[in-house]
Amino acid sequence: MIRTDRFAVSRRLYAVDLGSLRPDRGWWKADAVWFRRKDGITAACIGYLHDLQEPAPADAAEFLRRYTDGRNGGQCEGRWDGEGYWGAYEAPEVMAEHLALLRPMLDTYPAIPTGYDGWWKFEGAR
Which element (helix H / strand E) includes 59? Predict the structure, then answer.
């Protein structure tokens, strides 16, 4: 992935929590947020980026530099479009956590939420 300062919703850009990099059953994952637009509706998404990397990345910046296969993009765990919420987990406390970040994120579109670094895109993405 490469970092860019120019935001465009069509470019599949991610803001990443650089302090969240962690191993997960042989994979590496880092928490991320992003915006998506479908049928004219913009949604704020929360989830993670994950990649199988050997040797282990030294830090999140190395993880992102080495992460080049963007076919699957981010793994979405929650999405808010201003009217409805969708979440991969049905736990009310997870939904509340997600909405506490996603509501203000959508309200301040396209700003990067506090604690996240962005924008990151896969090389070759428009």
Answer: none
